[in-house]
């Protein structure tokens, strides 16, 4: 299946580099390698329905302002973390661009109704046979 590629408008996201914890030794204390990617859905030019799905999928990444904040700090270099953050944003956008499948209402078939009732009857018989007469 061919995946749609989204081209984001300039200014629809910004990247900020911050210090990250974890591995890296003394380098961690000196160099800002973690990336905070802030995506502004309102400025992206995406259709309203896609923006609403995006906000629903974002979960805890959604800020009070309606922006999406992605933090990547698992790598030791700025560039690797930048690519990781952008990859996460791309994945989120790809999921939001895919409209949900419409549910088709169906009814159980006549045969499946009979099988269900037969199963219930057998189970009822088994439980009835377990009962003793306590009179």
Written overview of the protein:
With 135 residues, the chain is an alpha+beta fold. The chain has a domain at 13-97: Double Stranded RNA Binding Domain (2-Layer Sandwich). 41% of the residues lie in helices and 13% in strands. The protein contains 4 helices and 3 strands. Helix 2 (48-58) packs across helix 3 (78-97).
- Cα gyration radius (Å): 27 Å
CA-CA gap between termini: 69 Å
| Biggest sheet, spatial arrangement of strands | 1-2-3
CATH uppermost class of one domain: Alpha Beta
Architecture of one domain, according to CATH? 2-Layer Sandwich
Please indicate the percent range of residues in DSSP E strands (runs of 2 or more): 5-15%
Largest sheet: 3 strands, antiparallel
CATH topology of one domain: Double Stranded RNA Binding Domain
Secondary-structure class: alpha+beta
Q: What is the β-strand count?
A: 3
Overall helicity: 40-55%
Number of helices: 4
Which descriptor suits the 3D outline?
A: elongated
Pattern of helices and strands? EHEHEHH
Q: Provide the low-confidence segments as ranges.
A: none
Mean pLDDT: 85
Which helices and strands appear, and what pairs or packs with what?
Blueprint: E1 13-18, H1 27-30, E2 34-39, H2 48-58, E3 68-72, H3 78-97, H4 110-130
Antiparallel strand pairs: 1-2, 2-3
In short:
The chain has 135 residues and is of the alpha+beta class. The chain has a domain at 13-97: Double Stranded RNA Binding Domain (2-Layer Sandwich).
Key descriptive features of the protein:
3 strands; alpha+beta; single chain; three-stranded antiparallel β-sheet
């Amino acid at each position: 299946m061919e995946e749609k590629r989204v081209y984001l408008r300039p200014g629809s996201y910004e990247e900020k580099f911050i210090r990250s914890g974890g591995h890296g030794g003394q380098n961690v204390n000196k160099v800002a390698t973690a990336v905070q990617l802030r995506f502004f859905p309102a400025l992206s030019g995406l259709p309203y329905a896609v923006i609403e799905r995006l906000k629903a999928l974002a979960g805890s990444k959604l800020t009070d302002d309606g922006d999406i904040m992605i933090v990547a700090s698992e790598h030791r270099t700025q560039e690797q973390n930048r690519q990781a953050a952008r990859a996460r944003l791309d994945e989120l956008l790809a999921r939001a661009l895919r409209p949900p499948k419409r549910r088709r209402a169906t009814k159980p078939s006549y045969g499946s109704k009979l099988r269900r009732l037969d199963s219930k009857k057998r189970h009822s018989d088994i439980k009835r046979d377990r009962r003793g007469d306590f009179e």
